[in-house]
Amino acid sequence: MGNPMERDENRGLYKTTNGGASWENVLYLDNHAGIIDMVINPQNPNVLYAASWNRIRNNQESIVAGEDAKIWKTTNGGASWEVMTNGLPTGELNRIGLDIYPPNPDIVVATVVDVNSQLLNIYRTDNAGEWWYPIATPDLIAADPLGSFGWYFGKVNINPWNDQEIYLLGVDLYRTVNNGAEWLPATPDWWLYDVHADKHCLRFIDQNTMLLATDGGMYKSVDAAVSWTDLENIPNTQF
User: Fold this and answer.
1) Could you report the per-residue pLDDT of 36-70, keeping only the tens digit for each?
2) How many Å apart are CA 105 and CA 158, to the nearest integer?
């Protein structure tokens, strides 16, 4: 994403083919947009999806949306890119998050935030981006899962063992087990602080065991998000 405080040419997606000795920018938008998320097809690493985003934040301006917010795809390792369109929203958009389903990497999901920093929808493709369709219910959108500051949240995750089970990370964690037909909270209400507010990263150990990173630390579930344990004594700090 580059330096968020200023317009900077050093934004975009960079690639190395020599273990990091040198890097080449293979996807550049402009000086106030960068790449906020990316997923790679594990069966064919020349196929990648990248999400671009307009973002400036300093003491004079805060840009969270723009025309550069798009989903890009390459099938040749970044030599060329195409914008994903069919079924996806266009125009000014906010932050976009991506995830891919490893057993069948033609399945990709994307969470898209609108210009008001609210959830616009979650989109899914089952055919490698030829067509996308929305899977967030009106009830989920009305619940304002991102707390109206969607620029702060950008992750959606598929259970790597079940493509029907999808998680949206926001102030709380939401889950569907039927590809979006119904969404329910997967953590207690944030204000109870059994699981801290603001969810940013979810990783699966197995089909029922997962780690959840929040603004208040990391939590673990071993029963498919029925209950959570606060993982203490993590050797980290925050400045």
Assistant:
1) 999 999 999 999 999 999 999 999 999 999 999 99
2) 11
**Greatest Cα pair distance in the chain:** 49
First to last CA, the chain: 20
Query: Which token pair is 229?
Result: 């344990």
Contact 101, 127 (CB under 8 A): no
Between CA 128 and CA 47 the distance in angstroms is 10
How many whole angstroms separate alpha carbon 159 and alpha carbon 104? 12
- For the entire predicted model, the pTM comes to 0.96
Cα 134 from Cα 121, distance rounded (Å): 6
Cβ neighbours of 85 (radius 10 Å): 13
CA distance 135 to 182: 9
